[in-house]
């Protein structure tokens, strides 16, 4: 994850900052999957 907005003294945007080779563009799906993994790891039955 990253930021598109300028936020520092020097901002670096590899490949223009939008599309990265091998990076899934479905960020929400990736976050949901990560949340499921974390929830499953710490769930108490």
Automatic annotation (TrEMBL):
InterPro entries attached to this UniProt entry: AB_hydrolase_fold, Lipase
Molecular-function annotations in GO: lipase activity
Organism: Araneus ventricosus (Orbweaver spider)
Highest taxon of the lineage: Eukaryota
SUPFAM superfamilies, sorted: alpha/beta-Hydrolases
Record Pfam families: Lipase
Full protein name: Lipase domain-containing protein
Stretches assigned to the Lipase domain: 1-35
């Amino acid at each position: 994850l990253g930021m598109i907005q300028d936020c520092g003294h020097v901002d670096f945007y590899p490949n223009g900052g939008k599309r990265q080779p091998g990076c899934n563009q479905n960020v929400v799906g990736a976050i949901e999957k990560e949340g499921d993994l974390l929830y499953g790891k710490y769930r108490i039955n």
